[in-house]
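Fig. S4 source data, part A: sequence.
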Amino acid sequence: MPKLLLHIGMPKTGSTAIQNTLSAHGKLLRHYGCIYPEFCKNHGNFLIPAFEPEGHAGAAQRMREMLTDEAELLVERLVSIVQENKEANFILSGENFAPMSEVGAFQLFEFLRSLFEEIRIIGFVRPPVSLVHSLAQEQIQNMGFGYNWLEDGRLYLPYKRDLEKWNNIGSDVFQLRIFSRQALTRGCAVASLLAFAGLPAGCYEKMIVEQSNQALSMLATELICVANEDYPPRKADKYNPARAKRLSTVLCRVAGSGCPKFHAPEPFVRRTISASKGEIKWVENLLGETLSAFDKEPPPDVPRFKAAVSDARRFELAALVKAVNDELLLAQRV
């Protein structure tokens, strides 16, 4: 029977780059005796809906609602590929495997155990300060948060919540890697995953790593914060189709280069780290290492994002956002 390396994320640890790169180099991987099923880049997109119980909150439930009809067919396709390649090693990847419910994760693992002789599970964890900056950027860009959230809110860093179930499934098969340039093989999550899978360095050297998520500039973040407040992605009484992802995408391009990169306000970072102390301590005990040793705060001379903005500055930003949004609406009507 074949062997499996199951990559479970976590989010913000290069999962999309891993999936894009491996799916683009299927022929190369097969040359080295490894299969990354290419019919779906993110295997969580069909395995989670197939095995997650109904009613589980969060991304897994949204994926279930979107893809339940398709999931069973893709599971059958995976089974067929495994049965046709019994001497191969497999890699499956999905960053949303990590936040599955305990029941869903166990059911998925039992299913995979029926297909594979040996299963190893790998997850990457991003150091907390770096994770706060990255998650804050994502929440602003994709979830519609603005200045008020940065001024008064905080994040939750779900290390224990997302990973404990996988450790309970089998601590002997579950391993974590720190997502940091100094800790990763060649400073790259793709290289680290391939090394963990036992593939030779020559395999990675023949690949073109497809990077995905880029850091927001400070100006782009300002514009998106204003857009989120003035043109909410969805209101109870109104939906603006142009506002969805298109407005954020255009604003990022307008203000993408030549500007300082976004770094969350220091008070926001402190609030989040303080509220997540238990989660951080748990994952450090599991790793046997202190995550802060791999965390780099921005140097003192690097500007932090300001949670408050002057009336004059906000007027300038709002005028640009309105102009872009109006053009998108006009283009949609044509």
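Fig. S4 source data, part B ends here. The mean pLDDT is 88.
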